[in-house]
Design a protein that fits this description.
The protein has 62 residues and is mostly helical. 34% of the residues lie in helices and 0% in strands. The protein has helices at 14-22, 43-54. Helix 1 runs parallel beside helix 2 (43-54).
């Protein structure tokens, strides 16, 4: 994980990304990449947010 040194006005925030991912059936998603992610708080909070977003896309037990 690398901190982003900038923000993008109107950029994709976790809630909007979650809504976007929820609108796509998981079996239709072949892959993805998270290039940069920065949020206030601890690294553990950032990791928890990322796992919350992509967790439903992971195979069971991962």
């Amino acid at each position: 994980m690398a901190a982003a040194a900038y923000s993008v006005p109107g950029g994709l925030v976790p809630d909007r990304l979650r809504a976007f991912l929820d609108a796509i059936p998981p079996e239709r998603i072949a892959g993805g990449a998270l290039a940069e992610f920065e949020m206030p708080g601890t690294a553990q909070a950032a990791i928890a947010t990322i796992l919350d977003l992509v967790g439903p896309l992971l195979p069971a037990g991962r």
